[in-house]
Design goal:
Layout (H helix, E strand, L loop, with lengths): L1 E2 L5 H10 L2 E4 L9 H12 L7 E5 L8 E2 L14 E5 L1 H11 L5 E4 L5 E9 H5 L5 H4 E5 L3 E3 L5 E4 L3 H7 L1 E3 L6 H12 L5 H17 L5 E4 L5 H11 L8 H10 L2 H7 L5 H15 L4 E3 L6 E3 L2 H23 L13 H5 L3 H24 L14 H11 L6 H16 L8 H17 L5 H5 L4 H6 L6 H12 L14 H4 L5 E4 L3 H6 L4 H5 L4 E4 L1 H7 L4 H12 L3 H9 L5 H5 L3 H20 L14
Parallel strand pairs: 2-5, 3-12
Antiparallel strand pairs: 1-12, 2-4, 3-5, 6-7, 7-8, 7-11, 9-10, 13-14, 15-16
Helix pairs in contact: 6-7, 13-15, 13-16, 15-16, 16-18
């Protein structure tokens, strides 16, 4: 229902004060700066149009945990009649300035936190043509205005001082008793003040008391996804609301859970514990800060999408079991709507299952030599991987299933299929991979559609590329041994200690001394996983020079070092001869073979002697 001529400002502030109007818990705290509050007060005292507020009646499907507006004296446990979706900043500012007996918390022009009282200069307010913005005064918390060198300019520390200066405290407008006492003190200070007060009463006080707040009041039947959509459209001045915050408020407002457990369900706290445990055990999932809740890597949205995929797959399976051959079964999906309508009971049932699935995925990625967040080819591929693992159950540990998962994973990475819109691929992969591995169905689209062009290998030169990161992991998975530490293969245990990274084999300085070839120089073909110690020895040297230096530094024989170099799919003879063309042709073909083994299918080759030019 839209109320163009809504409730009076006084009535609305009273509803805010007693908790009839509260905020849904997904609303962030937000305060206006001092200048905006002064402008807002000028608008109201002049009866100028104010932006439309929007509320949602409580008691319907969209049950959200509520909290009072900041600074209001609402009794804990008060159940609101309406939730404020739009207008938080305006109503919070107006309540604190016009109804509160505490100074308003705001920021000054330099964004420094300050506490202010708001007054109106009566003489300026009644003067024809005067600027109302100038009449609204922001006064420091101690009610003393000082000039340069601390000189006192204005003292409003008592009612008598306020009346003497003619500065009316705006927080008395809706306080009939306080306003009446202030008026009597003011008019008795001088005989000519009755006329001034009458004009002030008419132009300011009566105007504010009669001010109407335009209001859109949504009925309680409004769906959660509509509430979210509406909120985002009106919340243009704030930070975009996300599904996780909306679900946090929804779950916290679940009265049944609260009755059963004696406390609200805290989705944010549950996610903090889950993410902390996962990222602590598996660095590939990133990190989360317990105080700021800032996170990297695996996100709360990823987790929710995985639960939604699992839940909707199970729902579809149950439906088909009871309705064999049904033409339109419920879809497997993880769209925004599915997340918003995820029941708390389903979340609490599936969250432990999905958490275990992500832990399994962490171990799986480690087996593929993807250990760190920075080396993860596609963060988005974690979602279908975990959902597939959750749905496979104990079968995920079968060797044939793990082999299939590995092939599917590398087809997605090396085929670079997870770089665009992924929601539809999530669904296809979950349905098709589970059917393929559990029921002997056809190969999933991600495997059949994936292809790798030889030309792409030459152009892989950036860490931002998923296939580039994938090649780095595959080389280590093949058993690459560092050239400075030839006793053991590169592993998760020594990756950080040795500062292993993707480094050039023929260094840039070599190309500057010889024929420049920027494409092949930067290609993954001319790079491999090496420690910082090796990179220091390489420096600006030719391979023949730095290999001899490495032999001396490590006490390694030429034959042994050649064997170590071979673990990187490199022909050591080409390196020792400083023959870049021979090295490049040979290694490109070896890496293409590595790609073929990982994807389980042939790459599109251009010929054994293909170059880049």
């Amino acid at each position: 229902m839209v109320a163009l001529d809504g409730p009076s400002l006084g009535r609305m502030l009273e509803d805010v004060a007693v908790g009839k109007i509260q905020l849904p818990d997904f609303q962030r705290q937000w305060k206006w700066d001092d200048d905006r509050i002064r402008a807002l007060l000028a608008t109201v005292t002049l009866d100028y149009p104010l932006g439309v507020a929007m509320t949602l009646d409580t008691g319907g499907e969209s049950q959200f945990k509520a909290r009072p507006l900041y600074g209001t004296p609402v009794v804990p446990g008060t159940i609101p009649e309406q939730l404020l979706l739009d207008g938080q900043q305006r109503l919070t500012s107006l309540f604190q300035a016009l109804r509160s007996d505490q100074p308003v918390e705001t920021n000054d022009a330099r964004n420094k936190p300050v506490r202010r009282w708001y007054y109106i200069d009566i003489s300026m307010a009644v003067e024809e043509g005067a600027d109302r913005d100038e009449a609204i005064r922001s006064i420091p918390e101690d009610r003393l205005v000082r000039g340069p060198f601390g000189r006192l300019l204005l003292d409003l520390t008592s009612r008598e001082a306020e009346c003497r200066e003619g500065f009316f405290p705006l927080n008395l407008i809706f306080d009939a008793d306080g306003s009446g006492k202030w008026q009597r003190t003011y008019v008795t200070a001088a005989e000519d003040r009755w006329d001034t007060w009458s004009a002030f009463q008419e132009k300011v006080l009566d105007t504010v008391k009669g001010f109407k707040v335009p209001l859109i009041r949504l009925p309680k039947e409004t769906r959660k996804d509509a509430v979210c959509s509406v909120f985002e459209r009106v919340n243009t001045g704030g930070v975009v609301l996300n599904v996780f915050e909306l679900l946090t408020a929804t779950y916290a407002g679940d009265a049944g859970y609260t009755r059963e457990h004696g406390r609200d369900f805290s989705l944010s706290q549950q996610w903090l514990m889950t993410k902390s445990a996962l990222s602590g055990a598996y660095p590939v999932f990133g990190s989360i800060d317990a105080d700021s809740r800032q996170e990297t890597g695996l996100t709360s949205l990823d987790f929710l999408q995985t639960i939604a995929l699992t839940q909707t797959w199970q729902r579809k399976k149950r439906y088909l079991a009871g309705n064999p051959g049904a033409a339109s079964p419920p879809a497997v999906s993880c769209k925004r709507r599915d997340l918003l309508h995820l029941p708390l009971s389903d979340y609490t049932a599936l969250a432990p299952v999905v958490t275990q699935a992500f832990a399994w995925a962490g171990r799986f990625l480690a087996s593929q030599y993807v250990f760190r967040e920075r080396d993860l080819p596609y963060g988005s591929q974690l979602v279908p991987l975990a959902a597939i693992v959750a749905l496979l159950g104990d079968r995920r540990d079968e060797p044939a299933v793990q082999e299939g998962l590995s092939r599917w994973y590398w087809c997605g990475v090396l085929g670079e299929l997870y770089g665009g819109v992924t929601d539809t691929r999530f669904v296809r992969d979950v349905e098709q991979v589970v059917a393929w591995l559990a029921d002997g169905g056809p190969e999933p689209d991600t495997i059949s559609e994936a292809s790798f062009q030889e030309q792409r290998l030459h152009r892989l030169n950036s860490r931002n590329s998923a296939a580039y990161k994938g090649m780095h992991a595959l080389l280590m998975k093949e058993g690459a041994v560092d050239w400075a530490y030839p006793e053991e293969v590169i592993s998760e245990q020594n990756l950080a200690g040795w500062t292993v990274d993707i480094r050039q084999i023929f260094p840039r300085a070599w190309f500057l001394r010889n024929e420049p070839d920027p494409v092949r120089m930067a290609s993954i073909v001319n790079k491999t996983a090496l420690s910082y110690r090796v990179s220091q020895t390489i420096g600006v040297n030719s391979p023949s020079v730095y290999l001899s230096a490495l032999e001396k530094e490590t006490g390694t024989s030429s034959d042994w070092l050649d064997d170590v170099i071979g673990t990187h799919h490199i022909d050591p003879r080409a390196l020792r001869a400083d023959d870049f063309d021979a090295f490049y042709r040979d290694r490109a073909q070896r890496l293409l073979g590595l790609v073929e083994r990982a994807m389980g299918k042939a790459v599109v080759r251009e010929g054994a002697d293909s170059g880049v030019g």
